[in-house]
Design brief:
By secondary structure, the chain is mainly alpha-helical. It has helices at residues 27-35, 44-57, 62-67, 69-75, 81-84, 89-96, 105-125, 128-133, 156-167, 175-184, 196-199; strands spanning 141-142, 188-189. A two-stranded parallel sheet has the order 1-2.
Length: 202
């Protein structure tokens, strides 16, 4: 008898590594958890990518975004902020018709707007990296966490980042989005204490 694909549940990674429980439902999550989440990022292009992806994630699951990540890369010029900042109304309409991404008019316009703000920060600070990492003094914050319940949705630092970015014209940059961004780019390490990644920091 044929087994419906939807009825096949992912059994988790086939190894003995202890991981944060949130990533165990899908192989895409596991790969992201093992290779990216919480690892310090200092490349402006990748920082812009996470900035855009986190803004699109608002109200959705991060897995939804990860599954569409390659589509986002193609749609947003491989996350070249200089190109995205020049998107016109015709390009906006094209993005609104792209079924491969999240077709939300406010989020798409925010991405274009934020690319312009991103470039202005690069001009002022020399790089977006210098700007955003200044909120944590240039060093990752390693939180001690025993359970997923202990992971906070935001912090005083993400509050401050959100306010400052708002003053600089960024959209979709609430404190919760900022904190998720901080987790993604390694400004804060929220791997659980028993997670293999926490014990094997890069």
């Amino acid at each position: 008898m044929a087994v419906k694909k939807s009825s096949i549940k992912y059994a988790g990674p086939n190894d003995d590594k202890v991981r944060c429980g949130w990533c165990l439902s899908d192989p895409i999550y596991v790969k992201y958890h093992d290779e990216e989440w919480g690892i310090p990022v200092h490349d402006d292009k990748l920082l812009f990518e996470f900035l855009v992806l986190e803004s699109f994630q608002a109200g959705l699951s991060w897995l939804t975004i990860l599954k569409k990540r390659e589509n986002f890369r193609k749609a947003f010029s491989n996350f070249d902020a200089n190109k995205v900042a020049k998107y016109n109304e015709q390009k906006y309409e094209t993005l609104m018709q792209d079924a491969g991404i999240i077709r939300n008019q406010l989020k798409i316009r925010a991405a274009i707007n934020n690319a312009k703000c991103f470039i202005e920060i690069q001009k002022e600070f020399g790089s977006f990296d210098k700007y955003v990492w200044s909120f944590v003094g240039g060093m990752p914050h390693h939180n001690k966490l025993k359970s997923l319940k202990n992971i906070q949705p935001k912090s005083k630092i993400s509050d401050a980042m959100s306010v400052d970015m708002g003053k600089r014209g960024f959209k979709f940059r609430g404190s919760t989005i900022c904190y998720a961004f901080m987790q993604a780019v390694g400004m804060v390490d929220d791997h659980l204490d028993n997670c293999w990644r926490k014990k094997n920091r890069p």
